Amino acid sequence: MTRIPDAVVARYPDALRPPTPHTRAELDCLLSLTIGTVAIGHGRHPASVAAATAFGESFGKAGGTVLAIVHWPVAAASWLRAARRLVAPGPDCWVLADTPAGAAQVARRLALEPGWRADRTFGFASLGTAQLVTLGSDAVVGMTGALPDGGTWCVRSGLLVRNSRAD
After folding, report:
1. Residue 135, Cβ density class (10 Å: 0-12 exposed, 13-18 middle, ≥19 buried)
2. How far apart are CA 84 and CA 44, in angstroms?
3. Integer Cα distance of 166 and 65 in angstroms
4. Looking at residue 19, what DSSP letter applies?
5. Which helix (DSSP H) or strand (DSSP E) does residue 163 occupy?
6. Rounded distance, CA 136 to CA 51, Å?
7. Backbone phi, psi, residue 162, to 5°
8. Disulfide-capable partner of 89 in 31, 43, 55, 67 (CB 3.0 to 4.6 Å)?
9. DSSP letters of 49-80?
10. What is the largest CA-CA distance in the chain?
11. Which residue in 24, 7, 8 sits closest to 136, CA to CA?
């Protein structure tokens, strides 16, 4: 998969909006989905940095091991460096915090890296959008994440499925 052209990303302005701050229920849900070792990746928006930091601290306190914390810019030539740094330590799973556009760019690059699997990749609520599915294409099929209320979202067969705790 290749980089998503800027002109294509521009068609999805909601995919570029800064993420909202994560909730405690969202963080707890992500902690319940992940086990073993993890690599955390995030965009540079303050909410993404805060979410990644909170997850890393909570995951460590719960006995998990954070092997890498990797950040990436909004715009890059290929996101190759970030993708390789996320995959290199060989984690059991990955956690991403960013805008849908940023995560889609990284996921498309991760899909080319041996050892990475979308079905072992988890995201914060900001990623649980149709824009991630559209921009990420096949690279995001299998990803799962948390909703603000502690429910989950997942990408299956090119569709976003949401399971709210209120349902």
Report:
1. buried
2. 18
3. 31
4. P
5. strand 159-163
6. 21
7. -110, 135
8. 67
9. HHHHHHHHHHHHHTT-EEEEEEE--SS-S--H
10. 43
11. 8
13: exposed, middle or buried (Cβ count in 10 Å: 0-12, 13-18, 19+):
exposed
Q: What angle do CA 135, 141, 144 make, to 5 degrees?
A: 105
Nearest to 74 by CA among 107, 111, 99: 99
**pTM assigned to the model:** 0.95
* Closest to 86 in 3D by CA, of 51, 44, 40, 141: 40
Torsion sign (Cα): 92, 82, 20, 118? negative
**Which tokens is 159 given?**
């569709």
What are the pLDDT digits (tens) for 96-135?
A: 999 999 999 999 999 999 999 999 999 999 999 999 999 9
pLDDT digits (tens, 9 = 90+) for 14-65: 999 999 999 999 999 999 999 999 999 999 999 999 999 999 999 999 999 9
DSSP per position, 129-147: SHHHHHHHGGGGTT-EEE-
